[in-house]
Design brief:
22% helix, 4-stranded mixed β-sheet, alpha+beta, binds iron/sulfur cluster, 101 residues
């Protein structure tokens, strides 16, 4: 194996950075995931049946939930309930809590 030169380090640093950035991309929570089913996660809050989910109130979405962490202008962001997975801003689950502040 050839010695690692300063020149070689300069060449591979951008690749390492891209790899790390890619590793930070969170996967999107799916309705079919067990943890999503546990809280009746709906990828589209507009499709929640209020007869099945009495706690749902029109207008509630992840975007206005106190557990939601927006990611800039992206249509998805983090949720305090789901480590390592993003949720859609337009989604809803039965753990929705009013955002304060
Ligand atoms: S807890 Fe809030 S942000 Fe998380 S999935 Fe449920 S409604 Fe969305």
């Amino acid at each position: 194996m050839p010695p690692i030169t300063r020149r070689r380090i300069v060449q591979i640093m951008p690749l390492l950075g891209a790899g790390l950035a890619g590793a930070q991309t969170q996967s999107l929570l799916q309705e079919s995931d067990d943890e999503a089913k546990a809280v009746a996660y709906h990828a589209d809050a507009a499709k929640v049946d209020p007869k099945k989910h009495a706690q749902y109130a029109k207008g509630q979405t992840c975007a206005n939930c106190g557990l939601y962490a927006p990611d800039g202008d992206k249509p998805s962001g983090g949720c305090g309930l789901f480590y390592g997975k993003d949720v859609l801003a337009k989604a809803w689950c039965n753990a929705w809590v009013k955002k304060t502040g």
